[in-house]
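#structure-requests
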Amino acid sequence: QVQLVESGGGLVQPGGSLRLSCAASGRIFSINAMGWYRQAPGKERELVATVSSGDSANYADSVKGRFTISRDNAKNTVYLQMNSLKPEDTAVYYCTAEVVRLRGFPRNNYWGQGTQVTVSS
C-alpha cells in the first residue's frame, strides 16, 4: 500500500505565494516521475507540473515562470512553490507519483487526496 499526503493549501490573496508538499509513504522501492495536477470547479483535471527522477521539470504554460516543482528523493516528497498567484489558480491540487513497490515489479500511479488552494482578495 502506498499513500500520498498533501499539505500546504489554503487561502491567499492575489500576488501571494504558497508552497505545497506531498509525501509518499508505504511499501516503496523507487519513485519515477512525480507531479501536480489541479481541478477547478466545473473543469477537467489538468497538469500543472511534473518532475522526473532526474529532476527534469515540465510545466503547463499557464504556470511557467510562477511555479517551481522540486523533489527530495530521500524523503519521497515533491513540492510545488507557487508565486504570483492569480484567482484562476484556484483549484484542488492533487499530487501524483509513479511508484515501483518491489524490485522488478511494474510501476503504478498513485494520487493524493487533494488540497484546496483559493486565491481571492
